[in-house]
Every structure is written in structure tokens, then in C-alpha cells.
């Protein structure tokens, strides 16, 4: 039996090891070797060793620095996404407790009545889209009163079960500058106050919140404002707040001993004091893990949004490094240079992750 045990273990691990070799290790080795060649899918170009030529080209490539800036700019949304997920997790950690079941029933019926009347008023006023939004929010509030915070947790996480492509297409329609729901809502609010307000161009604008800085001309800076980068950031914040980060924070909150908060409350500590001195320190390992995976996802992200929403535009302002690798390898057929960009991205991911890991270990030791 002892002699057969390694064989049995090897048979069970063989499918996973085979998949790792075929789909991970071999492609990684090929890209590393290919980054030192003129590897191309063009049949007329023979394969040759070019040394560090691809990396030298990358250093002098202005487009690489623009797309690196785009990647870093989109990552500015990470603190808002993580903070929003933590805030929502704290709100959803408790339950909607009522002293009497009669109060719960009253709150449920009141929420349903108010949302129905509001949606009906907006519908007959000609705002069908806003009526649907109010009806959906009212239904969420009614379910919350009826079923407790579990209904809210389920509702906020439900969009994660939707295919990413479908969600991106939905947001593309919302961002339509002429008929999109967002700009329509902005115009309606402005009209309510008697002011003609026009929404941003969103996915068609090269403006940015850092557009007032003296960027080089080849950065395609459209000036100060809200543009395509901000549109993708808003969508990412919305997806992250109710996504896996919310589940991780809820799991971390459930592991905090309730006796700590009870003792602090008895000593007269307020809600903010309990959060600052108990909840936040107890969530440090969870927050550290979320920050690490968010940094990795941020550096590697942006491909689906750029491919489906903007094709990397306008003027390359939404092209990230991951999408640039795709463009070089599979549209321009220059796999050698695309592999060099991919390995530069790997070095960035590895370096930032190592720095953050070292900082987290030092803070933990302190």
C-alpha cells in the first residue's frame, strides 16, 4: 500500500498538472522566450533572435507610457471601491430588528405603497425610465423590511452572477450621451430646477479630472471634465462595492467577537469609536488581502471594458496595458513585442505586490 500511494496520488493530480503545464507553464515559457525574438504571425517573416530589441523599443514607446498612465488612472477608483464595500458591509452586517412583528408589517406595507405611488406618478408624468428605477428601488426596500438584511445582501450580490459582457453592454447604453438613462436623469433634474443641463459625453470624451495638468500633447488630453476614463471607473466602483469584496468584509465582520463591541458599548464608546478601535483593527487581515488582489486585478484589468465599450478610444484614452498586449499580439500580429509588454506588466504586478506585502508584514509585526 505504501508503494502504491504515490502512484494513486499522482493519478489524482495528473489532470490538474496537465492543465497547468499546457495552459500556464508552457505559454509563460513561450512568451518569455518570444520576447527576445521577432515572433510574428505573419508567414513571410522568419523567426529570428533579436535580444533586447523589443524591450528597448518598449522603453522608447510613447504609447506604452500613455497606456500605463491609463491603467494607473483607472486604479484611482480602488480606494473608493474598497471603502464603499466596507461601508456597505458594515450596514448589512446587522439585521433590521423590530420590537414587534406588527411594526415590521407596517414598514413593509408603507414602503410598498410609497414606492408604487411614486412610480405611478412618474410614469403618468412621462418619465417611464425613472418610474422603473423608483419601482426597483421600492421593491428592494420592501424586501428589506420583509426579509431583513439578507434580502439586501442577496440583491447587492446578484449582478455578479450576470455575465460580464451583458453588464458592459448595459452600461454602454446607460452612458449613451443622447438617449442614455444617466444623461436623461441629469437633464430631468436640471429641468426640475429650471436649468438646462447637458450631461457629459462619457465614452466619447477625452476629458479627465486630471486634465488641467500640463500633459504632453501625445497624451491626447481633452481638458478638465468627465470623460471615458471616469465612465469606466464609475462602472468599476459599482461592480466592486457589491461584489466579492463585500462578501469578504461580511465574513471578516462575522468573525469579530461580539463581546468586544458589547464591552465597548458598556464603557460608553460610540459607533465611530467602536469602528475605529475594534472593527477596523480586527478587519486588518481581510483588508490587506482585498488590497493585494485589487492591485493585481487593477493592473491586469480594463481589457473587457476597452474591447467592448470604446475599442480603446477615444484617442487611446481607455486603452490599458492588458488591451495593448492584445492589440500587439492578435491584431498587429507582433507576438514578440506583445510578449515583452506582457513581461513588463508582470514585473509591475510583482513589484507592487511585493512592496505591499512587505508593508503589510511590517505593519502586522508592529
How many DSSP helices?
17
- Give the overall form: globular
CATH topology of the largest domain: MetI-like fold
Question: Number of folding domains?
Answer: 2
Into which percent range does the helicity of residues fall?
55-70%
What is the radius of gyration computed over CA atoms, rounded to a whole number of angstroms?
26 Å
CATH architecture descriptor of the largest domain: Orthogonal Bundle
Strand content: under 5%
For the secondary structure, the number of strands is: 0
Largest beta-sheet characterization: none
Uncertain segments of ≥5 residues (pLDDT<50)? none
Sketch the topology as an H/E string, one letter per element: HHHHHHHHHHHHHHHHH
**Termini, distance in Å?**
49 Å
**Which CATH class of the largest domain is shown?**
Mainly Alpha
Entry summary:
This protein is an all-alpha fold and 366 residues long. Helix content is 70%, strand content 0%.
Amino acid at each position: 500500500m505504501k508503494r502504491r500511494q504515490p502512484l494513486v496520488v499522482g493519478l489524482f493530480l495528473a489532470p490538474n498538472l496537465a492543465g497547468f503545464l499546457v495552459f500556464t507553464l508552457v505559454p509563460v515559457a513561450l512568451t518569455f522566450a518570444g520576447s527576445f525574438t521577432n515572433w510574428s504571425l505573419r508567414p513571410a517573416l522568419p523567426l529570428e533572435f533579436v535580444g533586447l530589441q523589443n524591450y528597448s523599443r518598449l522603453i522608447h514607446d510613447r504609447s506604452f507610457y500613455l497606456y500605463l498612465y491609463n491603467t494607473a488612472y483607472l486604479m484611482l477608483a480602488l480606494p473608493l471601491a474598497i471603502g464603499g464595500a466596507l461601508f456597505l458591509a458594515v450596514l448589512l452586517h446587522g439585521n433590521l430588528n423590530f420590537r414587534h412583528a406588527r411594526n415590521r408589517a407596517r414598514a413593509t406595507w408603507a414602503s410598498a405603497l410609497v414606492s408604487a405611488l411614486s412610480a405611478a406618478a412618474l410614469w403618468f408624468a412621462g418619465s417611464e425610465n425613472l418610474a422603473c428605477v423608483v419601482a426597483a428601488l421600492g421593491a428592494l426596500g420592501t424586501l428589506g423590511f420583509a426579509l431583513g438584511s439578507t434580502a439586501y445582501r442577496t440583491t447587492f450580490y446578484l449582478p455578479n452572477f450576470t455575465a460580464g459582457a451583458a453588464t458592459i453592454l448595459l452600461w454602454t447604453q446607460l452612458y449613451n450621451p443622447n438617449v442614455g438613462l444617466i444623461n436623461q436623469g441629469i437633464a430631468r433634474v436640471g429641468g426640475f430646477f429650471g436649468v438646462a443641463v447637458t450631461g457629459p459625453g462619457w465614452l466619447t470624451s477625452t476629458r479627465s479630472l486630471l486634465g488641467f495638468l500640463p500633459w504632453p500633447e501625445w497624451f491626447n488630453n481633452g481638458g478638465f471634465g468627465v470623460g471615458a476614463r471616469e465612465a469606466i471607473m464609475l462602472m468599476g466602483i459599482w461592480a466592486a462595492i457589491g461584489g466579492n469584496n463585500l462578501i469578504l468584509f461580511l465574513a471578516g465582520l462575522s468573525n469579530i467577537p461580539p463581546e468586544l463591541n458589547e464591552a465597548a458599548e458598556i464603557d460608553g464608546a460610540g459607533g465611530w469609536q467602536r469602528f475605529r478601535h475594534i472593527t477596523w483593527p480586527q478587519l486588518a487581515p481581510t483588508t490587506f488581502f482585498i488590497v493585494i488582489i485589487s492591485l493585481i486585478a487593477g493592473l491586469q484589468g480594463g481589457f473587457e471594458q476597452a474591447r467592448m465599450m470604446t475599442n480603446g478610444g477615444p484617442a487611446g484614452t481607455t486603452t490599458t496595458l492588458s488591451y495593448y498586449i492584445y492589440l500587439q499580439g492578435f491584431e498587429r500580429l507582433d507576438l514578440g513585442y506583445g510578449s515583452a509588454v506582457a513581461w513588463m506588466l508582470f514585473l509591475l504586478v510583482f513589484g507592487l505586490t511585493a512592496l505591499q506585502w512587505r508593508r503589510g508584514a511590517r505593519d502586522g509585526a508592529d
